[in-house]
Sequence to fold (646 residues):
Amino acid sequence: MKLDLRMPIGLMFAIFGAMLTVYGLVSGDAIYERSLGINVNLWWGLVLLAFALVMLGFAIRARGRRHGGRENASSSD
Amino acid sequence: MQQIHLGAIDYALLIVYFAFVLGIGWVLRRYVRSSEDFFLSGRSIPAWIAGLAFISANLGAQEVIGMAASGAKYGMMTSHFYWVGAIPAMVFVGIFMMPFYYGSRARSVPEYLKLRFDEKTRGFNAMTFAVMTVFSSGISMYALAKLLELVLGWSFHTSVVLSAVIVLAYIFLGGLTSAIYNEVLQFFLIVLGFLPLVLLGLKDVGGWAGLTTKLETVATNAGYSAGAWSDSWRHMDAASANPMGVEWFGMAMGLGFVLSFGYWCTDFLVVQRAMAANSMTAARRTPLIAAFPKMLFPALVILPGMIAIALHETGGGLLPIGSDGTPNYNLAVPVMLAHYLPSGLLGLGLTALMASFMSGMAGNVTAFNTVWTYDIYQSYIRPGQPDGHYLRMGHAATVFGILLSVAAAYATTKFNNIMDMLQLVFAFVNAPLFATFLLGMFWRRATGHGAFFGLVIGTAAAALHHGLVLPHGAVAGLKGGFLGAALHTYPSEMAQNFWTAIYAWTACFVATIVISLLTGRNKSDDDLKGLVYALTPRLTDHELRWYARPATLGVVVLGLTLVLNILFW
Fold:
């Protein structure tokens, strides 16, 4: 693969998740009237962070395996 | 409607998204060395990426807005577009058609037609397809810009220029690979951006049970039996019993067979994604992998519309009323976004809307530049040039393809009728195309003349049928009946469209057979190896584990779809 797409996807959602989580922590209760009183920014921010971690986890594991594989079997590449 | 005000956080989310799509194009630019890299991603895309891009390219803003609008207008019956229309067609293209598309090494759908039939059939398909993609991306650009103008107060020009420049930049840099990679990113963004809206809406109306109760009011207010908005099949024995105005046969044949198979099996916009896959197995799995999320999309795109109409009818006027006294269904998604999402998630929802628009537009642009360069420029204008020449033409075609789309968007603001007419003409051209492919792939006796004149006759049949019938309550003109007498009146436009497709397909099917039998074969069995089912060696898939075989995936997908149809019967 030219570019492990899971990396940019993971990074983008990590940034989105962090932004929403922080915004959820600092914003007042008033704006959550329309979302049925739930602090959706905080909760959905955490969901996005979890999704981002899964994506990044896969990407980092695949990268480790690629580098490790190259050292063990240098003729295969 | 009341305009939505965005906060700094909303704009910040949008800017992060723009940075990522452009960044992906920038990183991928160094992999574009040949025209094959630019137009076909060098056939190197893994199956899961191709699969998600396959549905994402189809999931334009018009799909998101239009499906929610249909969900509000027709209720649960809209799910037929997925569970009867798209899914079976996607399974068919994956299992039966990809072996020919991918195996023939054709670089585009028109090129397959040239290999299988002849030059004139390819030319006809290439020209209509090129014009169609430019106009459909122009029309969807117009729709998005109008929506943003209405909802956010953004200027029409800013929206058009901004979205066009960003899509142009990332395709110009990284070609199809960049479009596909971004489509996958956009896919996740669309899902994760709209999901909170669906969850909040469902919680608000009291879950599926609460929604069903509220939709009973909607149905009885409109004069239908109580379940008309929440059942998919139960009210289809007569056209007058459901809001769509379609009976089961017209729906299953018109939508389920002709229109869906015609779109998913022959439209280069989606087929291109599978052609870019890195192996025959990956190419066949592409539409099947796409079918799994596609199956669940009704929850994401139709449900918000159903919730909107339920709240509208029971809670007092959520949707703005248009000049003709009916609710403006197209505003269901933006109204729901404004209704439930606070600053923060609102920005994410709007970013998802932008992402759906860009994925649809990039799909059109990459399909256009490929068909233009390979099937029109290389075939008829400047054949026999070195590869670098066609790569440069691909870059140029990306620029003028987008400029033409922008021009089409502005033309739409001036001449609404011309756009309606063009869409009508394309519907006439597309409906019979599936008959040509079906005969081409499964009947070796089908000839070039048969295919070409079959298509012409099918198109004419569509125009003739449309010209002689009218939907209920319409006046003669673009809606039909332009040939004078209205011989038949359909209960709805939807029913009229489905039957136009059925007539066009049948005319093309019969005409192609008759003309093929009357004309001599222009391709020998040897020429047709790899292009026709009976002359292509079977793929056995013994090397794959049973659960990874395309046939197994296809059966699982169809089984799950059947379960969904029964659950929501």
